[in-house]
Design goal:
Layout lengths: L2 E4 L7 E4 L9 E2 L2 E2 L4 H30 L9 H26 L5 H9 L5 H25 L3 H5 L9 H36 L8 H20 L5 H13 L11 H20 L23
Antiparallel strand pairs: 1-2, 3-4
Helix pairs in contact: 1-2, 1-4, 1-8, 2-7, 3-4, 3-9, 4-8, 6-7, 6-9
Length: 298
């Protein structure tokens, strides 16, 4: 999250927080409204819970409505509705909590920003706890909606799987392809996040829409292969709750949805940093040995 402090004769201290969405006043008439860590924790927890409920829940709904009527796998129309559900959920949360926690709602995003020293490891750990709790809460809401054990053992709770990759490439090849696709998908997701939500030069107000549509586009592209998690918390919550409630899921498959997104996220941020790296010129000397850049605190 990028913070710019400005002073004027009207308002002694005004802090603008980009947070991946519209600029908002975070400090007004001397009242410090900068979110504390507890507020960020709750925001991230609720954000992931909403994402899982709406996104993964749309898979449960599709399975529930099509049971015995529409053969699997899903048609492009059904896949499209699921993709839009994820897009709507992501956009809604970015515009709602982006100015509070930065709306990471994804351990891969938090991990990537911690690795590149944009967020401290202590704060990142708090974000991770909130995100995984949120993933579980979102799955619990899905189960509550569709009858608890009946939901887990019937239509399922939207848990991710890469069965198609296994069918196409066999066991070893399927794992490799699944990790590769989750890595590539998260790489481009973080590239877009950096360019639209983190870089101070990005047009304000567009991040939620663009990031949401980015995820929808990737679901269109390889949804049947890995179910497109790009997010360890989104994969973890439904899988764990589904197993606890008597459903079936091979928990070892969660490894794909941790390794791929974490690796892809870091590669995406590092690549973006390379693309936007500032050049030192005579008119823009280094400040204290650190180049002034649009993604650094000013």
């Amino acid at each position: 999250m990028i913070t710019l402090q400005m002073k004027s004769f009207v308002v002694p201290k005004v802090t603008y927080s980009k947070g991946g969405c519209l600029h908002v006043i975070a400090d007004h008439y001397g009242m410090d409204r900068t979110p504390n860590l507890t507020q960020k924790f709750v925001a991230e927890m609720l954000g992931v819970a909403f994402l899982v409920w709406i996104g993964a829940g749309s898979i449960t709904v599709t399975n529930f409505l099509s049971a015995g009527k529409v053969p699997l796998p899903f048609s492009m129309a059904e896949l499209g509705m699921i993709a839009l559900a994820f897009a709507f959920a992501i956009a809604a949360m970015i515009y709602t909590i982006g100015h509070i926690s930065g709306c990471h709602i994804n351990p891969a995003v938090t991990f990537s920003l911690a690795v590149t020293r944009r967020i401290g490891w202590g704060e990142a750990g708090v974000y991770w706890i909130a995100q995984f709790i949120g993933g579980i809460l979102g799955a619990v809401v899905i189960a509550f909606s569709f009858g608890w054990t009946q939901a887990a053992q019937g239509p399922g709770l939207g848990a991710t799987n890469f069965g198609t990759a296994l069918n196409l490439y066999g066991t070893t090849g399927g794992w490799i392809v699944a990790i590769a696709m989750e890595t590539i998908g998260t790489f481009f997701l973080l590239l877009v996040v950096m360019g639209t939500a983190v870089d101070g030069r990005a047009p304000s107000g567009w991040a939620g829409l663009i990031i949401g549509l980015m995820v929808a586009g990737e679901i269109f592209a390889f949804g049947p292969i890995t179910n497109v998690a790009l997010n360890p918390a989104r994969a973890f919550g439904p899988a764990i709750v589904q197993v606890v409630l008597g459903g079936t899921y091979d928990l070892s498959h969660l490894l794909v949805y941790f390794v791929g997104p974490l690796l892809g996220g870091v590669l995406g941020v590092v690549t973006y940093d390379f693309l936007q790296r500032a050049r030192v010129t005579a008119s823009t000397p280094e400040l204290g040995g650190i180049e002034k850049s649009a993604v650094e605190k000013v």
